[in-house]
Amino acid sequence: MDGRWVVVLNYDQEYIEQHELENTKIKGDVSFEFQWDESSVTEEGQKKIITVNGKNIEITIKKDEEPQPSENKFSLNKKAGKLTYDEEKKKATIDYTVTLDVKQDMTGPLTMEDVLTSNGFDYVDSSLQIDSSNVKISWADSTSGNGKTLTIGEEGKTIQAGKYTITYRVEKGKLWRICGRDRRRAEQDQHAQG
């Protein structure tokens, strides 16, 4: 109508009358997309009044739900190596490799959580490495549980676009009985197929 958009809200008449008798407000959420002159509304959370059929309705302006910039700047791919067992030290280890693909230069640091789901395994603190001499990496015990918080890069310094390989190890001691029994069973299965 005359270059204006109209929003129509349909309510059941009895519903409206009941709220009028009880002198209560009707609350609800309505979502629609439109463009508003930026000079009229510029801040998220700003409230405006629109009039519909003689009734004033207060609306709150919200920003578009856009992905945060960091969500598009990098990706991660984590792979576990094979479980190995050192009979002399009586320890099982798993080496992890994380590929960090930084798609565009970003300001550090980048932090992420790593959580161990394998029961009884512990991080080998001295094993954390990154394949770049230009980017520092460190980790600390996570406050959220059985994990580590990894910090890549330094405050205010640029992490250049490219692929980085991060490696670390986890270990668990006293698996010699389990590993020995599993190895014998595997040898028996291999001999039976033989």
What key phrases describe this protein's structure?
single chain; 194 residues; alpha+beta; 6-stranded antiparallel beta sheet; disordered C terminus
Helix content: 10-25%
Oligomer: single chain
Mean pLDDT over all positions: 75
The portion of residues forming beta strands comes to 35-45%
SSE run: HEEHEEEEEEEEEEEH
Helical stretch tally: 3
Overall radius of gyration: 30 Å
The count of β-strands is: 13
Shape: elongated
Structural class: alpha+beta
Report the end-to-end length measured between terminal Cα atoms. 84 Å
> What summary fits the major beta sheet?
6 strands, antiparallel
Describe the structure.
By secondary structure, the chain is α+β, with helices and mostly antiparallel strands. 17% of the residues lie in helices and 37% in strands. It contains three helices and 13 strands, in the order H-E-E-H-E-E-E-E-E-E-E-E-E-E-E-H. The protein has helices spanning 13-22, 69-73, 176-193, and strands at residues 47-52, 55-60, 74-80, 84-86, 91-102, 106-107, 110-115, 122-123, 129-130, 137-141, 147-152, 158-159, 162-173. Strands 3, 4, 5, 8, 9 and 13 form a six-stranded antiparallel beta sheet that branches. Strands 7-11-10 form a three-stranded antiparallel beta sheet, with no helix packed on it. The N and C termini lie far apart (84 Å). Mean pLDDT is 75; it is low at 176-181 and 183-194.
